[in-house]
Design goal:
Shape: rod-shaped
Mean pLDDT: 81
CATH architecture of the largest domain: Distorted Sandwich
Largest sheet: 8 strands, antiparallel
CATH superfamily of the largest domain: Glucose Permease (Domain IIA)
Bound molecules: zinc ion
Helix content: 40-55%
Length: about 260
């Protein structure tokens, strides 16, 4: 695109300059500024001698317009191009305003595309860097494991921490249920893309609702002591293959995802 525009600009330049050429091309295109300046007094003199007042007016009109003292560069250049002969011209290159505007739009579009690529790359990097799985409570005490307990079976693990400590989604998922749950007081169920469901119980306050997508590490609730609980803690379960599936030991399930309890 750039090369094409450049080529068009040169073509237009030649078209604009060539018809006005009355002297040899070498003089027109290669003349240094010094002879250019030197010629002007001779031109003025010749005009004065030949045409008197009328010619004088013409010279006064054309010479200053092409000089470095002109107040408008555009007028000076136009005047130079309009001069029939006797004034040696250096090449002028130009494109139309429409072409320039098109070029500006192309640059803006190119920058917008670049910004979009950079934003996408940054988002991909952030996505790659964030954890795929987390411990549902930070700094908790492991107070009870999965297995037989007090003549019954404990289908999860207990993580004790101060009241209203944030509880996190263990992995990305969608909230299936959130609300009252017998024995748990309150509970949240999250379905993950591998089909497993994680269950969180006893919280003091639930911060998500069914249908909500949550990321691993996102706060879903504040730890509590509701239901059949002997102190503030999170009861955490994993239902393999879906809600109502086999309740497996969460410790190896977390360990398989790089999370140590
Ligand atoms: Zn428990």
């Amino acid at each position: 695109m750039d090369a094409k525009l450049g080529q068009e600009a040169r073509t237009e330049l030649l078209g604009a300059v060539a018809p006005r050429t009355t002297r040899s091309a070498t003089r027109r295109t290669r003349t240094a500024p010094a002879p250019h300046v030197r010629r002007r007094p001779a031109l003025l003199l010749g005009a004065l001698l030949a045409g008197g007042v009328a010619a004088s007016a013409l010279s006064l009109q054309s010479a200053p317009a092409a000089s470095a003292d002109a107040t408008s560069v555009l007028e000076a250049q136009d005047a130079l191009l309009a001069t029939d002969e006797g004034v040696e011209m250096l090449p002028q290159a130009s494109i139309t305003v429409a072409e320039a505007e098109l070029r500006l739009k192309e640059v803006a579009a190119s920058r917008a595309a670049r910004d979009e690529r950079e934003a996408a790359a940054a988002a991909a990097a952030a996505e790659a860097a964030r954890p795929k799985a987390v411990l549902p409570v930070d700094g908790a005490r492991f107070t009870s494991g999965y297995g037989s307990r007090w003549g019954t079976f404990h289908y999860g693990i207990d993580l004790a921490a101060p009241m209203r400590t944030p509880e996190y989604a263990a992995m990305d998922g969608v909230v299936l249920r959130a609300g009252s749950a017998s024995g748990f007081g309150l509970a949240v169920y999250i379905l993950h893309d591998n089909g497993d469901v994680t269950v969180y119980g006893h919280m003091d306050k639930i911060l998500v609702e069914p249908g909500q997508f949550v990321e691993a590490g996102e706060t879903i609730a504040l730890l509590g002591n509701r239901g059949q609980s002997t102190g503030p803690h999170l009861h955490f379960e994993v239902h393999q293959g879906g809600l109502g599936g086999k309740k497996i030991n969460p410790v190896p399930w977390l360990a398989a995802r790089g999370v140590e309890v």
